[in-house]
């Protein structure tokens, strides 16, 4: 294989080989993540339909988190090393589409729980597989490599922000019925899966040169992109380091905290907030996180100062102005600031995990990082779902902020901290 073909370029024409576009895999990542958070502003309606309380909705979220961790664990197994990465992403898309269809057309609490479980499985498989696939395909095709290196760490949070925003703005305003949004997401995921499967089934014909026939990027030799090489029986996969896991866990714990607090704080504890308001505000920390992961990833030192500043602002707003417009504005601004810091922290943690893993173990490192992230996302939701009835939100936020201040000090000041790496190294070597 020539050097140009290793980059996914045909020697005769200089054009990228077929199937080198990372767009379908990126869409699968965003789509599965969006499906995961669509129910956020709709949970009150589901609770009334199913006759459950806040504890019940917390359990339903736990079902999703269980599915996500299970999907991430599947990717981490040795057997999965023989499963082509493209096929993993197609499977994740089909699981997400099936979950969306179940949520759209099958009534009942059990069906909703099943849909959330399938959604979690799709998220887990996509998160661990697509993050490396997207950047590898961009490099193989020679198309906008810098762009994809920059935006890939923010794909997950972009999708997580689109879910509640779409549910609030589209379903909450009555522009589209709930089932219509789920069907739209299923259509996008199935289309992306079809594009990925189609490109895998139509390899480019080998190019004849003076050196003889050449292999193609979609052929069996393209293991660096299409398939993660299997580790030998005596080779133990190199997992993500504890600082990277802790950073990812902390970043998603921040967003999970806001996801749990938003409905309660917008209601002021006395009335039911609109799905539109909950959706828009719940999307803010994820959207700011996507921007932080993409635009501010080189500012690692900013991560925890932004998180702590945002949480302090939220604590003041909820304590001094509960149930008022000023309190809501303060909460939204604080959520955006803290979300930006969380995005920086997650981008740096994921980049560090992938940078320190050999190519054949990058999927394992991604799986470890995202597993820690979803554990961090689930813990605040489950804990706050049971605590908010007996503890003031401002007390919870202050305690959470104190814990994050300690974690931030440890991660930032430790020798070789990934929050102090040079921005150039982060961008060019991490993914």
Could you please describe the fold and organization of this structure?
The model is unreliable at 1-19, 204-236 and 422-430 (pLDDT under 50). The protein has a single domain (3-7, 19-201, 240-429), classed as MFS general substrate transporter like domains (Growth Hormone, Chain: A, Up-down Bundle). The longest helix has 33 residues, at 109-141. A hairpin with a 2-residue loop joins strand 1 (208-209) and strand 2. The protein has helices at residues 3-6, 23-37, 43-50, 54-76, 85-105, 109-141, 145-151, 155-171, 178-201, 223-226, 242-267, 275-295, 303-320, 325-355, 362-387, 393-413, 423-429; strands at residues 208-209, 212-213. A two-stranded antiparallel sheet has the order 1-2. The chain is built from 17 helices and two strands. By secondary structure, it is mainly α. The chain is globular, with a radius of gyration of 22 Å.
What best-fitting shape do the alpha-carbon axes yield? globular
Uncertain spans: 1-19, 204-236, 422-430
Terminal CA distance reads 23 Å
Biggest sheet architecture: 2 strands, antiparallel
Radius of gyration using CA atoms only: 22 Å
Order of helices and strands: HHHHHHHHHEEHHHHHHHH
Q: Helical stretch count?
A: 17
Range of helix content:
over 70%
The CATH fourth-level homologous superfamily: MFS general substrate transporter like domains
Determine the mean pLDDT: 79
Which CATH top level class fits?
A: Mainly Alpha
Percentage of residues in strands: under 5%
Number of strands: 2
The CATH topology is what? Growth Hormone, Chain: A
Task: Quickly count the domains.
Answer: 1
């Amino acid at each position: 294989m020539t050097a140009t073909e290793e980059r996914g370029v045909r020697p005769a024409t200089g054009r990228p080989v077929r199937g080198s576009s990372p767009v379908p895999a990126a869409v699968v990542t965003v789509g599965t993540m969006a499906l995961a958070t669509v129910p956020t502003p709709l949970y009150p309606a589901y609770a009334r339909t199913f006759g459950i309380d806040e504890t019940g909705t917390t359990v339903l979220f736990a079902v999703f988190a269980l599915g996500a961790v299970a999907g991430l664990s599947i990717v981490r197994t040795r057997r999965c090393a023989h499963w082509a990465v493209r096929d993993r992403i197609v499977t994740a898309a089909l699981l997400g589409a099936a979950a969306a269809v179940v949520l759209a057309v099958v009534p009942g609490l059990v069906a909703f729980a099943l849909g959330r479980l399938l959604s979690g499985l799709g998220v887990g498989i996509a998160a661990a597989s697509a993050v490396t696939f997207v950047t590898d395909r961009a490099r193989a095709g020679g198309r906008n490599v810098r762009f994809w290196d920059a935006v890939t760490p923010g794909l997950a949070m972009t999708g997580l922000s689109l879910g509640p925003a779409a549910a609030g703005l589209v379903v909450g305003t009555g522009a589209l019925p709930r089932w219509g949004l789920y069907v739209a997401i299923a259509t996008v995921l199935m289309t992306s899966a079809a594009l990925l499967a189609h490109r895998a089934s139509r390899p480019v014909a080998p190019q004849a040169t003076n050196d003889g026939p050449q292999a193609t990027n979609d052929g069996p030799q393209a293991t660096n992109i299409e398939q993660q090489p299997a580790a030998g029986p005596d080779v133990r996969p190199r997992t993500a380091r504890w600082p990277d896991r802790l950073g990812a866990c902390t970043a998603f714990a921040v967003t999970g905290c806001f996801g749990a607090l938003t409905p309660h704080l917008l209601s002021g504890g006395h009335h039911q907030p609109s799905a539109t308001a909950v959706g828009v505000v719940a999307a803010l920390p994820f959207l700011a996180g996507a921007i932080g992961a993409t635009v501010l990833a080189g500012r690692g030192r900013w991560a925890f100062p932004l998180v702590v500043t945002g949480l302090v602002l939220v604590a003041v707003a909820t304590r001094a102005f509960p149930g008022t417009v000023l309190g809501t504005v303060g909460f939204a601004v604080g959520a955006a600031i803290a979300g930006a810091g969380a995005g920086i922290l997650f981008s740096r943690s994921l980049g560090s995990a992938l940078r320190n893993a050999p190519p054949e173990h990058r999927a394992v490192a991604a799986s470890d990082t995202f597993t820690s992230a979803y554990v961090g996302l689930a813990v605040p939701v489950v804990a706050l779902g049971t605590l908010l009835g007996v503890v003031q939100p401002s007390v919870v936020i202050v305690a959470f902020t104190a814990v994050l201040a300690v974690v931030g000090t440890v991660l930032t000041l430790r020798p070789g901290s990934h929050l102090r790496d040079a921005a150039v190294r982060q961008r060019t070597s991490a993914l």
